[in-house]
Amino acid sequence: MTARILILGAGFGGLELTTMLSSALGDAADVTLIDKSDSFVFGFSKLDVMFGRVAPDAVHIPYDRLAKPGVRFVQSTITHIDAESRCVTTDRGTYEADHLVIALGAEYDIGATPGLAEHGNEFYSVRGAGIVRDILPTFTQGRAIVGVCGAPYKCPPAPSEAALMLDDYLRERGLRDRCEITIVLPWATPVPPSPDTSAALVAAFADRGIDYLAGRQVKSLDGEVAVTDDGLALPYDLFLGIPKHCVPAVVEESELLEGKQWIAVNPRTLETRFPNVYAVGDVASPGTVPKAGVFAEGQAKAVASALIARIAGHGERSDYPGTGSCYVEFGDGRVGRVEVDFYSGPKPTGTFQGPSVALRAEKDGFGSSRRMRWFGY
Questions:
Q1: How many domains does the chain have?
Q2: Residue-number span of the structural domain to which 33 is assigned
Q3: Does 368 map to a domain?
Q4: 200 plus 224 within the same structural domain
């Protein structure tokens, strides 16, 4: 009997898992990949949209380009997940599976921060980045804040990147001396696992005249002032926010959370408490691992190895190592890279490669290699 594998969510985790299963099993597995969207977007491309480097439509990669043996893509909205029976209901029908993988990512709770919807702008969605792109030309003087409204959040370096790229944008327009930039981050350092990366970012802030406020989150906005969780009032003319993240409503309504904020999983195998049910990527909580596509991809590899070994009867499962690397925009066309390891030692560690133009080409290659692997072009 052909094994039925149901994957919910076609982001980094879902796409990598689908690709590996198809490559190893082909038609020996019946893989269904479900996502409510019609296209995939690399998270880092939203900064390019925000600063006018690319048009919003240009960053979408259509899912109709997916063509893999043993795989079917379904664009549909998931309305109910029964983890016990591995049965999923959508607006296009019901699906049952022998193996179920939740890879639905994190969503944004704009309403969790009073005033954000009315008086601020988020740039973590393509739509939000497009709105900011249209607003930025009108910002010619005053105070800009890049502020985190809740942790954890996707791509920890992204707020720092936004602040440095905003500095570039204003300098290119000859407006930097008329504008102030403040960044508000929830941790003591910008990238806690890597002191070297954090030190480089803090030095870049100082060099660019960016005011860095650590260990705070923005809790409310009123159109003129942003208030942090420790009561600090920050006047602003432009607010660029990272909204509080949450699980999709269909996950919150399921039995998967057990009263927690994210789906609890075995940090090495990504198994949930339900037999043959896994969770990978931003929707899951495998210990201290941050929410970023490269980690979802690594988690998907571990799940794929387990499913392939079980279904094909050969090969070895490999545990998730808790490692990954992220590229960091430093402005001036330069990109740095941080490699982090969350599981090998008593605490997470990170190594840093300083910013350079050469690493920009490497970052571009990271995106193009995934697009070719997952979509074939």
A1: 2
A2: 3-106+247-312
A3: no
A4: yes
Instruction: Point out the domain boundary residue: 312, 343, 366.
Output: 312
Whether residue 257 sits in one domain with residue 179: no
Name the token pair of 100. Answer: 């179920």
Of the listed ranges 29-43, 107-121, 130-144, 302-316, the least confidently predicted one is 302-316
Q: Which position has the token pair 């990147």?
A: 161
CATH number at residue 27: 3.50.50.60
- Residues 60-95 have pLDDT tens digits of 999 999 999 999 999 999 999 999 999 999 999 999
DSSP-assigned beta bridge partners for residue 264 = 285
Threshold 0.90, pTM exceeds: yes
